[in-house]
């Protein structure tokens, strides 16, 4: 545990880049930085009705590896100290993780999990698949149900991501992303490293045009998360997404672009998720993925990974329900050695303080870290801070 001096920084939308010589005005902001866990990636964070905090994250492998599983840590003192992680989701011969989360009004905890795999031990696109599941807890995360598979038809692969929200009528909404197999590969074909990848790219390019690429979408549940359906596409060309329910019942989603430099865009729905507005870009390139949280003050918080220098985690604030975003940023972390970090998520405690969790990998960025066992240099970090904005 350590004391951190965060900063509120003045930033210009889209054009502002530190590496291009932009000038930032800094205002110190006191905060506390803690370590939640070691050898973890991609955290999610929830606050329970009794004040406990739960953080779930990937362990056992780096970005890719069949030893990956979801571990859960618990804090009883507002995020200052954390329990040792316990394994809660691990299917055989697959890379597993929990990347969607929500706490219902009756206290039920729902986690959206992905289990994906491929032929052989080393990662490849041969026989690649990605299935999505829901697990639930009725006892504040101490025990968990058996995984229940999520219906994603007509898509044939998908990941859940972001928050699971409860609408006014009791229906649940979960954001996901996915598409049609075989995968549509991004990037340049000259970088394909083997025959399997080259064949996958060829098959992907032979699909009908309307089936190519990534799709951000939602599914809904009418039975408390036991079954899911009523799929509606938010936007094509986007993936990792996070929803928030606004006071006027509008659903706002922040999404990561699949192309064009991986920026963040927003879309909204005024009919419960059936139809969606055209995406509006709100960030620079390499500022992703985003987490949305409506504060008790009515301000809307967007926390995102900053994969430009200085590498870390930053915050944007909207005072008009996401229609516009202030030019000032809160810089919660800036100590990354490279861009392997981020995936932040923020909750607000009963006393009004905020807790943000994120992952960071220190040291040299290399392929062994991305595809091997979870390294000692990978950490789940937390920042405890006050919601004071200019």
Keywords:
390 residues; mainly beta; Neuraminidase; nine-stranded antiparallel sheet; eight-stranded mixed sheet; 2 helices; 25 strands; globular
Describe this structure in words.
The chain is mostly beta strands. It has a single domain, classed as Neuraminidase. The chain contains 2 helices and 25 strands. It has a 9-stranded antiparallel beta sheet with strand order 19-20-21-22-1-2-25-24-23, with no helix packed on it. The protein has an 8-stranded mixed beta sheet with strand order 10-9-8-7-11-12-13-14, with no helix packed on it. The chain is globular, with a radius of gyration of 20 Å. It starts with a strand and ends in a 5-residue tail after the last strand. The relative contact order is 0.16. About 3% of the residues have low confidence.
Write a compact overview of the structure shown.
It contains 2 helices and 25 strands.
Please write out the topology:
Blueprint: E1 2-10, E2 26-38, E3 41-47, E4 53-59, E5 69-75, E6 86-89, E7 95-103, E8 109-117, E9 129-137, E10 148-149, E11 157-166, E12 172-179, H1 195-206, E13 215-221, E14 229-236, E15 238-245, E16 251-257, E17 264-269, E18 280-281, E19 287-294, E20 300-306, E21 312-318, E22 328-333, E23 341-348, E24 354-361, H2 367-371, E25 378-385
Parallel strand pairs: 7-11
Antiparallel strand pairs: 1-2, 1-22, 2-25, 3-4, 4-5, 5-6, 7-8, 8-9, 9-10, 11-12, 12-13, 13-14, 15-16, 16-17, 17-18, 19-20, 20-21, 21-22, 23-24, 24-25
């Amino acid at each position: 545990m350590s004391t951190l001096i965060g900063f509120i920084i003045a930033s210009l939308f889209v054009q502002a880049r530190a590496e291009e010589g932009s000038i930032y005005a800094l205002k110190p902001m006191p905060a506390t930085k803690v370590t939640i866990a070691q050898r973890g990636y991609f955290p999610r964070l929830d606050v329970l009705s009794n004040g406990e905090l739960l953080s779930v994250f990937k362990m056992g492998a780096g970005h890719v590896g069949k030893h990956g599983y979801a571990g859960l840590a618990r804090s009883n003192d507002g995020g200052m100290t954390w329990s040792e992680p316990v394994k809660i989701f691990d299917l055989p011969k697959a890379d597993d993780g929990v990347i969607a989360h929500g706490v219902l009004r009756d206290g039920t905890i729902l986690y959206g999990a992905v289990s994906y795999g491929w032929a052989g031990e080393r990662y490849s696109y041969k026989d690649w698949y990605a299935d999505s599941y829901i697990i639930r807890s009725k006892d504040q995360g101490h025990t968990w149900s058996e995984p229940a598979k999520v219906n994603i038809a007509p898509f044939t692969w998908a990941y859940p991501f972001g928050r699971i929200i409860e609408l006014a009528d009791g229906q649940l909404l979960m954001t996901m992303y996915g598409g049609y197999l075989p995968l549509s590969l991004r990037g340049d074909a000259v970088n394909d490293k083997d025959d399997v990848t080259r064949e996958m790219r060829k098959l992907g390019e032979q699909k009908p045009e309307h089936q190519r690429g990534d799709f951000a979408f939602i599914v809904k549940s009418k039975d408390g998360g036991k079954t899911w359906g009523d799929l509606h596409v938010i936007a094509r060309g986007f993936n990792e997404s996070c929803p928030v329910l606004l006071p006027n019942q509008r659903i706002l989603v922040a999404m990561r672009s699949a192309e064009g430099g991986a920026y963040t865009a927003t879309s909204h729905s005024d009919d419960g998720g059936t139809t969606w507005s055209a995406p509006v870009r709100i960030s620079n390139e390499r500022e992703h993925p985003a987490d949305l949280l409506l504060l008790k003050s009515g301000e809307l918080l967007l926390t995102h990974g900053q994969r430009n220098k200085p590498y870390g985690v930053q915050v944007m604030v909207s005072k008009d329900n996401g229609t516009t975003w202030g030019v000032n940023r809160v810089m919660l972390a800036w100590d990354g050695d490279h861009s392997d970090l981020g995936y932040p998520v923020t909750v607000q405690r009963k006393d009004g303080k905020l807790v943000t969790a994120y992952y960071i990998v220190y040291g040299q960025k290399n392929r062994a870290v991305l595809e091997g066992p979870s390294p000692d240099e990978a950490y789940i970090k937390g920042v405890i801070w006050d919601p004071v904005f200019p």
